[in-house]
Amino acid sequence: MIKVKDLTFSYQKNKQTLHGLTFSVSDGEIFGFLGPNGSGKSTTQKILTGILNGYGGEVNLFNQSIVIKQKEFQEKIGVLFEFPYLYTNLSALDNLNYFASFYPRENCRDIFELLEMLDFKNDYLKKPVSSYSKGMRQRVSMARALLSNPQLLFLDEPTSGLDPSGAVLFRKIIEEEKKKGTTVFLTTHNMVDADLLCDRVAFIADGEIKALDTPKKLKEKNSNHQAKIDYLYQGKSTTITIEIAELGGGIPFPHDEIISIHSKEPTLEDIFIHYTGRGLS
């Protein structure tokens, strides 16, 4: 679905932003592109969606270079920008009807069904976007991204501005898109979203990919193979950390009751810091 080889880009002469990125995304995959602000992740997405030109290297979508048949690509992709790109003097309905006019009518989904799926408040359907909260604008932006039944969906910080229930809803919708066969390119610095959704993740920092694998394999590679055990013995509560291998023959210490056993595997954010030497903010 996506093939990128030796991708470079510079906003200023002699100051490169992307330093030879190489990666691919398979059909029907949710691919996470993770990094802090200024890492190059949004620049990469802008190149892949045809917003930025003047890059070096090779970029192919749908087995074709993106410099060829740009209009055909636009009809096959959906984009959710980090900052909602909507006409604030128009309502949700007016915005979506306008954007729908750019696609063949038979490809477009029902606007009311989309907004209902996204838990959009009916009272605001005809009110101007300027009166919406950030979460409501994000719902309209997601509806815009899904409007044309895209084969490839680019999502930039999709849960930004949403409350916890809204974030759960968006994750469910993204998973449903994957079940339909949609490929999802997810740029984010939200490791919870990435861990729950992504088949594979790439860590980008300073314009370079520092690691690329499934979240599970990244955790396994960087695990310290230890377990934390809470237990009771002779009326006293104790916590101990031991090597997981020591549990092969059972609990290796006297106890009356095991309260909990937890592996001490690193989080995706721990792993990101390990590979890049920096946090996500």
From TrEMBL:
Top-level taxon of origin: Bacteria
InterPro entries in the cross-refs: AAA+_ATPase (IPR003593), ABC_transporter-like_ATP-bd (IPR003439), ABC_transporter-like_CS (IPR017871), ABC_Transporter_VariousFunc (IPR051782), P-loop_NTPase (IPR027417)
Keywords: ATP-binding, Nucleotide-binding, Transport
GO MF annotation, one: ATP hydrolysis activity
Transmembrane segments: none
Signal peptide annotation: none
Residue intervals of the ABC transporter domain: 2-231
Name the UniProt record assigns to this protein: ATP-binding cassette domain-containing protein
Organism, as annotated: Alkalibaculum sporogenes
